[in-house]
């Protein structure tokens, strides 16, 4: 069901527009979901391969991390409570934080998949939809505070065991 270069170009253009531009086009929702899934897969492979403490996700990591911990000093990033991201009260609290990065982080408000429990992979039960800036804030904090090290260490241990067996 390939639409060739024209279809890919149209899809790329469509995905570059903000979500509000669409309404409920089912085909676009599928493309958004695929783009979000591909992003999640790349990110998980990255934190599985490179020690997350050394990762830089954006050119504004320091600013994002500092502002996140100023605005959300006690936010539990190990296992996220979806209500603290999605409830009407949470959205009111997150809105000023997110808008702060409107001109600093490209596509700051795009939909992205976020793991609830940072020690687990992306699964239907362990994934929620968040904005890109929420993803960056939480994942930068998880990387810097050592929570994503479990993923890296588990992956490194599995690779070592496979090497020893072969």
Short summary:
Residues 28-152 form the Polysaccharide biosynthesis domain. 57% of the residues lie in helices and 6% in strands.
Could you give the topology of this structure?
Layout lengths: L3 H12 L10 H24 L11 H11 L11 H4 L1 H13 L10 E5 L11 E5 H13 L4 H17 L1
Antiparallel strand pairs: 1-2
Helix pairs in contact: 2-7, 3-6
Helix share, percent: 55-70%
Which second-level CATH architecture applies?
Orthogonal Bundle
The strand line-up of the biggest sheet is 1-2
CATH topology: yst0336 like fold
Tally of helical segments:
7
Q: What is the CATH C level class, in words? A: Mainly Alpha
**What's the mean pLDDT score?**
86
Principal-axis shape: globular
The helix/strand series, from N terminus to C terminus, equals HHHHHEEHH
**Poorly predicted ranges (pLDDT <50, ≥5 residues)?**
none
CATH superfamily: yst0336 like domain
Structural class comes to mainly alpha
Number of domains: 1
β-strand number: 2
What distance separates the N and C termini?
41 Å
Q: Whole-number radius of gyration?
A: 17 Å
Strand content: 5-15%
Largest sheet: 2 strands, antiparallel
Structure description:
The chain is mainly α and 166 residues long. It has one domain: Orthogonal Bundle (yst0336 like fold). It is built from 7 helices and 2 strands, in the order αααααββαα. It has helices at 4-15, 26-49, 61-71, 83-86, 88-100, 132-144, 149-165, and strands at 111-115, 127-131. The protein has a two-stranded antiparallel ribbon with strand order 1-2. The longest helix is centred in the N-terminal third of the chain and has 24 residues, at 26-49. The model has no long low-confidence stretch (mean pLDDT 86).
């Amino acid at each position: 069901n390939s639409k060739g270069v024209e279809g890919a170009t149209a899809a790329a253009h469509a995905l570059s527009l903000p979500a509000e531009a669409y309404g409920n086009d089912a085909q676009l929702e599928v493309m958004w979901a695929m783009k979000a899934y591909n992003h999640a897969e790349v990110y998980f492979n990255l934190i599985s391969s490179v020690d997350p403490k050394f990762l830089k996700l954006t050119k504004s990591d320091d600013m994002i991390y500092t502002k996140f911990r100023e605005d959300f000093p006690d936010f539990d990033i190990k296992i996220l409570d979806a209500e603290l991201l999605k409830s009407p009260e949470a959205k009111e609290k997150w809105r000023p934080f997110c808008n702060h990065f409107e001109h600093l982080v490209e596509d700051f408000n795009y939909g992205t998949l976020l793991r609830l429990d940072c020690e687990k992979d992306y699964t239907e039960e362990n994934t929620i939809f968040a904005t890109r800036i929420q993803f960056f804030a939480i994942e930068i904090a998880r990387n810097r505070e050592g929570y994503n090290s479990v993923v890296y260490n588990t992956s490194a241990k599995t690779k070592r065991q496979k090497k020893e067996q072969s």
